[in-house]
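Posting this for the archive.
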Amino acid sequence: MKHSKVDATLYQLELPLRTPFVTATGEVTRRMVGIVAITQEGVTGWGEAAPFPGQDEPFEAVMMAARNGGMTPCLAAAVDEAVCDSIARSRGERLVDELGASTQRVPASVVVGIGDDAVDQVADAVASGIGRVKIKIAPGRLDHVRRIRARFPELTIGVDANGSFDASSWMELAALQDLEMSYLEQPFAHLNRREVGSLRGMGYAVFADESVRSVGDGVALLNDSDVDGIVIKPGRLGWQASIALAQLAREAGKRWRVSGLLESGIGRVYTDLLAAAHDAYLPDVAPADWFLASDIVTSRYEQGFVTIPDGAGTGLVVDREEVEARALESVQISGSVVPAPC
């Protein structure tokens, strides 16, 4: 592809959450996100930089990089998303078709934080038609999982430790092994330890999440016999790397999940597109407005399903004027963006 000058803008938005979201890395009450708009030959594509507090680079690092002509991992991922969206829109192609979409309606799921209201959150989700949940856990904070399973014995449940267990605490996870967990995400900060094998011996399917920050990371984990699968996050990897890893997982015969970073609907749509593939394993596709007090795009959730947008690129309709009106700051991203063909 030839070098092409583009109009690239990063919009900083603050998105309050409906309720505090608690994980092993802390409590989140708002999301600072950077919406990337890239226009090439009159066609605009959209991406989102939404580093998660305590897990990715600080959001201020994203803004500083953009102001100074630099880049961070989540900003690079957002630029890649927006570029691929713009190119696909200009060609009249749908990004969802790149992995061979098998559905236009994906069963929704909800990620539930650690807290006293976890059971009530799951009850609300089930009442709205949702049949899958992922529950955040941490050392010493597992009781809510047992309460949820007792109330909803047929519910599909996975758990996510965000790398919070270590050699002194991992045996606590034995308390959940009789609850039929569908997967365990990132039990340790680093997965190259013997405890992973012991957890698999307890019946856990162990998935790598925070350990997957590049295609190289994913390839190494797909080749690790002690890891059952990987979690693909477009908000960390970008669209092209996400597609590549999903294809490599297929070739390796390993399972892959897709998940987000508590983004707005602009970033979340990339998760939804990957989730439409036939072999996406229990993807996280909760509507953004389940968590956000106010999203910036229209919800696509109804009766337990999220609908894939119909149209070129992501198919998402974004009101740029509303993005600009809600922006705390806007920054022109300098230089030329030169992607490989999407």
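The chain has two domains: 7-92+318-332, 97-307. DSSP finds ten helices and 14 strands in the chain.
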